[in-house]
Design goal:
Arc Repressor Mutant, subunit A; Serine Threonine Protein Phosphatase 5, Tetratricopeptide repeat; disordered C terminus; 31 helices; 0% strand; mainly alpha
């Protein structure tokens, strides 16, 4: 028996959760486990995704500790059982166990490290209630208990909560610095696996809250490596996959993003994990961007069923479906209900786009101004890219083309710097429209081409169709099937039998530029030969027009 327990303890220390679980379970079946080994059994069960077994072991540890008058150990077991239940969304039962932990400690009247642990859920409640100052006080006291008793887990939880509270108090730099410090303890192996996973996920979420894409990417990679080192571990892996998917989507790797988030759904949905709602929302976003609207609708609804508001994505889906009024109604309602900075920042880009689509330029301008203010309070490149993008959209809608081009080119540079190809392509489409509005048809044509090619590479079929639609509208206005003035020059020379080299010399441009123009002409006229292009030119009187103009 003792040898089996020692084997289990050694496996637990080396984080071999399957072996630890198996050996501890065997020892428990043979003659029962002491409360401290029941705690190890519970932790192993939790990390293997055996939620019922985890709950049973901690409940037994609580009762055994109480029966031996070990109140502090009982309180700790009650705390962790409440903590595990809360992370699974079982708030009522989790709250009951946390209340038990508090009652046991109150009955003893002893100052101990467990008195610090029970402050952590109180701090989380304060954060949820919108009282970050109160949360900061509670988390700070928890960290003090940890430091007094040398408990690294409690120190990490206290500092984590303090950092989150500081961010909500608009002290973002101080909050992020404290979160980075907490992560150093995690990477050094100073905290338990449960606390390490908790800190990883919470820090990544905080980075996401302040739009710190680079930091979120760095810590997500670290979490991925940490999970890979413990292949049997189930919790945290799903959350890691969701975050990886979000980052891959931003960087344009949509196939990989969809594969990752589908794996996340399989892992999280099987355990009824609250993080599954984020996974389904991410799936919906990827389907929407690719034009799989029925699949997107189903995934948004599933995210909503699990407790995640399906906005702004569902409003953007309605816009893509041509249901503009429904999109506007939904996004206006969400903006009116959003009181915290994080939620408003998430909604604003979609709100601005939809308001412009329904012709409410004043509302869009107010949204762009608010987004600019939020960007001014942040050093995150992502917020500045969003703000410049929004300002360019609004300026273009107002007819201020020169200012719009300045903002849009700034936005494009920022999106390129943080490697967001989809947003870069969307800006290029706006630049094309701005150039078109200023009668710079040649540049507009190139920007249309660049945007379309990027959308094609990504698989953004609705955006490809939108580029073609905008080109067709322009062609109807000009009556030349979307050809730029320079492309018309090239077509007229093709029609009279000139070679590419001849055309390059006549127009003083390079052979490669001529090749690009010829390719564009073929695509726009839907022909596949110079002969067919020449026939089109004669049919539409383009050659005689050249002679008149000449």
């Amino acid at each position: 028996m003792l040898g089996m327990v020692n084997e289990a303890r050694a496996a637990f220390e080396r984080q071999d959760w399957a072996v630890a679980w198996s050996a501890l379970s065997a020892a428990d079946d043979e003659s029962g486990l002491a409360p401290e080994d029941l705690a190890r059994l519970a932790t192993s069960a939790y990390l293997l995704g055996k939620d019922a077994e985890c709950e049973s072991a901690l409940a037994r540890a609580y009762n055994d500790s109480l029966s031996h008058n070990q109140a502090q150990d009982a309180a700790r077991s009650a705390f962790w059982l409440g903590f595990f239940l809360m992370t699974r969304g079982a708030h009522a039962r989790g709250g009951g166990w946390l209340a038990r932990a508090n009652r046991v400690l109150a009955d003893t009247g002893t100052d101990c490290v467990e008195c610090g642990y029970v402050l952590v859920p109180l701090g989380l409640r304060k954060l949820a209630e919108g009282d970050p100052a109160g949360a900061k006080d509670l988390f700070g006291r928890a960290a003090e208990f940890g430091e007094r008793y040398g408990d690294h887990d409690l120190i990490a939880l206290g500092r984590l909560g303090t950092g989150q509270a500081l961010i909500r108090l608009d002290r973002v730099d101080a909050g992020i610095a404290l979160l980075d410090e907490t992560m150093l303890a995690v990477e050094a192996g100073d905290v338990s696996p449960v606390v390490a996973g908790t800190v990883y996920c919470a820090v990544i979420e905080a980075c996401d809250e302040v739009f710190d894409l680079q930091r979120a990417q760095e810590w997500t990679a670290a979490l991925s490596d940490w999970c890979a080192g413990q292949p049997d571990m189930v919790p945290y892996r799903g959350q890691c996959l969701v975050r990886r998917s979000e980052i891959l989507r931003l960087h344009g790797a949509w196939d990989a993003a969809l594969a990752e988030v589908r794996r996340a759904c399989e892992q999280l949905a099987a355990r009824a994990n609250p993080a599954a709602r984020a996974a389904f929302y991410e799936i919906a976003e990827l389907h929407r961007l690719r034009g799989a609207y029925a699949d997107a609708e189903a995934a948004y609804r599933e995210a909503g069923r699990r407790g995640r508001k399906p906005y702004p994505g569902l409003a953007l889906l309605r816009l893509a479906q041509g249901r503009t009024r429904a999109a506007a109604t939904a996004v206006r309602r969400e903006m009116n209900e959003a009181n915290d900075r994080k939620t408003r920042a998430r909604l604003l880009p979609a709100y601005i786009e939809i308001m412009l689509e329904v012709g409410d330029v004043a509302a869009a301008r107010d949204g762009a101004d608010e987004l600019a203010r939020l960007a001014g309070e942040s050093d995150a490149p992502l917020t500045h890219a969003l703000a410049a993008h929004a300002q360019g959209q609004v300026l273009l809608a107002n007819g201020d083309v020169p200012s719009a081009l300045d903002s849009l080119r700034s936005a494009w540079n920022r999106w390129e710097e943080i490697d967001c190809p989809y947003e870069s392509a969307r800006v290029r489409l706006l630049i094309a429209l701005a150039c078109q509005a200023s009668s710079d048809d040649d540049t507009a044509s190139m920007e249309f081409d660049f945007a379309r090619a990027a959308f094609e590479r990504l698989g953004a079929e609705p955006d490809v169709a939108r580029v073609d639609q905008l080109r067709d509208r322009s062609a109807l206005r000009r009556g030349v099937h979307g050809l730029s003035p320079r492309e018309l020059d090239v077509l007229r020379l093709i029609a009279v039998g000139r070679t590419n080299r001849d055309i390059a010399g006549a127009l003083d441009i390079s052979d490669r530029t001529v090749e690009r123009h010829v390719s564009n002409i073929f695509r726009k006229l839907r022909v596949n030969s110079r002969t067919a292009a020449a026939a089109h030119a004669y049919e539409h009187d383009l050659v005689s027009r050249e002679r008149r103009d000449g």
